[in-house]
Amino acid sequence: MNIFNDHRKLYTIAGLLFAFLTYIVVVMPAFDNQYNNLPLPGTKPLSGDAKAGKLIYIAEGCVGCHSQQVRNVEMDKMFGSRPGMASDYANIGRTSIWQNTATLMGTERTGPDLTDIGNRQPSKDWNLMHLYQPRSVVAQSIMPSYKWLFEMKAVPSKTDVVVSMPEQFLNGEVGKVVAKKEALQLIAYLQSLKQTPLPDGTKPLDFLYKKPEKIVSSKNGSSADGKALYTANCVACHQANGEGLKGSFPSLKGSKVVIGENLELYVDIIMNGYDARPEFGAMAGVGTNMNFTEFDVAAIINYERTSWGNTGKKVTPEEVKKIMDFIKIKLSAEK
């Protein structure tokens, strides 16, 4: 065994053996996965701002507290409509030639999973407030404030994105909170995080360890839980007491829209959002994003009309359905 007495032969053979095993154990499986797992139809590539936002997400250590993987267990159902699969990550390339932070699946959940946060919380205003001061929208949040992604301006320019922060969260600072480019890019990345729907006829994996639960969203004509729907989709902005946040999100308590007679406007706001600037931040189309049925919308309206001292008239799913159909026709005609 002359190779043990010649260090050049020993290192050469050891190096070749290491390279061969690396190819068999690492490179071949990687190529196999790449060819056998393609992105789902309809998968959208990241925009330029979203790509830059992803780098900021990495740099700020967001991956240390937030995961991006919906496991196939019932407790993860709140984070996505289905368990994650290999195709969800198939279109994600290397960050750079030196960085292999392609997927940001994370290892723990100090904060909620962000796989589908673009659908769960699409409001740009809410996200900016949450980034500037998390406690302004989630009182129990332990997330740090990222104020260095913003600046205070006495007189913002027309192109500035002003964050509608309640005064109690400004700590005595004078001026308007303006989002820097980095904050807007980070929000663009967060808003891009949406689960791609499976092709028609494809059945997703089942969630395991299911527990009996009351119906929150109704897809088959049975009653929906208005309070649960409100808590899951509306409470972040309008708060549990329905009073919203002064200067940021309107109060539903005593609201003319909530207890008024204009049901078409009410349904349209829930389904397609509303921009009440400069008084309040823009509301995203929560109902459309979450695929609300007429039963869901009716349940939310009835909950809001009978809560916090409101005494509005209850509506039926049939009434809501007629308005939803009319709104769809009107939007199609406008396009």
Key terms for this structure?
globular, Cytochrome Bc1 Complex, Chain D, domain 2, single chain, mainly alpha, 38% helix, 3 strands, 3-stranded antiparallel beta sheet, 2 domains, 12 helices, 335 residues
Task: Report what the structure shows.
By secondary structure, the chain is mainly alpha-helical. It has two domains: 158 residues, Orthogonal Bundle (Cytochrome Bc1 Complex, Chain D, domain 2); 109 residues, Orthogonal Bundle (Cytochrome Bc1 Complex, Chain D, domain 2). It has twelve helices and three strands, in the order H-H-H-H-E-E-E-H-H-H-H-H-H-H-H. Helix 2 crosses helix 5 and helix 9 crosses helix 12. The longest helix has 30 residues. The N and C termini lie far apart (80 Å).
Helix content: 25-40%
Number of strands: 3
Give a short account of the largest sheet: 3 strands, antiparallel
Q: Indicate the low-confidence ranges by residue numbers.
A: none
Helices and strands, in order, run as HHHHEEEHHHHHHHH
Under the CATH scheme, the architecture of the largest domain is Orthogonal Bundle
Number of domains: 2
CATH superfamily annotation of the largest domain: Cytochrome c-like domain
Provide the residue-averaged pLDDT.
88
Silhouette = globular
Strand order of the largest sheet: 1-3-2
Straight-line N-to-C gap: 80 Å
CATH topology of the largest domain: Cytochrome Bc1 Complex, Chain D, domain 2
DSSP helical segment count: 12
CA radius of gyration is 25 Å
Determine the structural class based on helices, strands and strand pairing.
mainly alpha
Reading off the top of the CATH hierarchy, the class of the largest domain is best stated as: Mainly Alpha
Strand content: under 5%
